[in-house]
Write the structure tokens for this entry.
Amino acid sequence: MQLSYQPHLSDPAFFPRDLLVSRGPTVLPMMDRRWMTHPSPSSTRSSFGCPRIRCICTTRVHLSEPWGSHPGASAFCGCICPSRWRVHAIPSSTASAHHATPTASLRNRSIESEEGAEDWKRKRNDRSIDRRSKMACNFASAALRRGARRGAARVRCATTSDVAAREASSRVQGDSDARVRFAPSPTGQLHVGGARTALFNWLFARQCGGKFVVRVEDTDAARSTKESEDAMVRDLQWLGLDWDEGPERGGERGPYRQSERKEIYRKYVDELVEQGLAYPCFCTDEELEAMKKEAEDKKLPPVYNGKWANASQEQVEEMMSAGVPYCYRFRVPTDRVVEIDDVVRGKVSWNTNTLGDFVVLRSNGLPVYNFCVAIDDGLMGISHVVRAEEHLPNTLRQVLIYEALGMHPPVFAHVSLILAPDRSKLSKRHGATSVGQFREMGYLPDALVNYLALLGWNDGTEKEIFTLPELVESFSLDRVTKSAAVFDIEKLKWMNGQHLRALPEGTITELIGKDLVAAGIAKDADGQFCRDASLLLQNSCDLVADSREQLQTILQYDFLSTVASEEAAKILEDDFKQVAEAVISAYESKELQAALENGEGGWKSWVKANGKALNRKGKRLFMPLRIALTGCMQGPDVGAQLMLISNAKGAVTDGIEVVDLDERIHILREWTNTA
């Protein structure tokens, strides 16, 4: 007997969109609010003759209604519980409602073909299979027997290890259905910590083909500004982190600003109140402070004592009629341990007794952060929440809200904080900390992205320089470390230099030329002088802005300060005056000028001939020549510097000091006469 139509729980065509709730890789029906509790596992049969299995857990079970109006699904029924056990049955084209061909799906184990019949019998007796898997085996065997009596024998089940592998891969690697979000508060500049969070989410989404959502958490009306939101959007775009849904892009699950979702939050507060999971609280600030002090005196957690948790309807109405301000609190279950399996930190658990009933809606009508986040993540179908570890304490409240509203919690990954070199939290007192500041300082977006990616993640090799496509290819959450990352500005600067020198020559020339003009040093960014300066400086600059100071050092001649320094003492002791007099002699004979006019080849020939004449080579020759002609002990090629100086006058702006070759020889001659 063949199935003419076999809808699956993940088939959007089978269930109306407004009756679906995402639950990991599946979609579960949310039909009514008939919750049941089953103390032990047992199989039953519905009034339609479909097999139904009860949950092994003692928590609430949500039953769906039959779908008699849907073609081929007149006998659908199911059982769903938070432990993700579910069974459903779909009829064939010829079977009556009382003879449906069973299709069971237990914890994502699909039973749908005949190949695994013997495998099921073997696994049923395998003591290494856990209790839930054995339960699935028993049900599958029963399904086989029933199907065989009806002429259908198409049963197959994925093994426990297969399922575990798929689930683990989906948790860490994601899939095309993965949805992640970056949810900044527009109360200031985009901090590098926030930028890294956005980057990790973006890389995860792009690596698995999922969706990256940007959501603006602007419920703090006093501090949130449009200017900050615009700056955040600008910084993300500059970093190359485009989003699939969010501000300026829209999307099916908007709006994407919390300030525009207030009606949604109020709706879910009302829903919690209707279910008895939230209640109004009329406590004053003084009463709350007294509760806190009492708890501290008893060395107990400072939790709300539940004064209004069991108030009668008459008491509540009396207070409301009197106009007493009130908030709404979530009713936290007692004596329960809530556990998450964090991708980065492993299993993390909390006892609900340490929490107390918390506020979800303030007396001014504004929802609190944790309530908004849980609602938004649930409605927007966020599958993975990747965020900083400072949000870990918020997770308990959010998980409780997810469960209360029948929303499946996402996979959590709490990454370490970014610390300053002194191991304190990175802040403004440590220098630049925002993306906008680094952009203004001349850092390249690719370099900053590269560096931020390595703050808490690596690909398992010694590789440090990555392009954005390489990061997308290599990134995975299982390589994110628990250890706090230290922000090293010198390492970032070095990395920027690596990316700068990897750019096409024309791009570097353009960047340096524009910067020299913007700094008021050069007149024409496209002129020969700027092009020569860019080619000369690009290998020694880590930042484009470094070219300013380096160029001015080249144009000047700080000879007297250099020869008076301790660093130059050994060079002067090695008969430096001999080399200086040789340079002066070559200038007076025009040999030096001729060598420079012949370009790089002429300069090298002159240096080689001068070395032979002085019986010097290597450092004993090059270092004295550098000091004599440039006045410095380090820098770009000496000959290239002198050629650039010869073209400087007229190309630099007024007020920029240029010491040409004539003036340098004059200063050098005066020094040798007194040395």
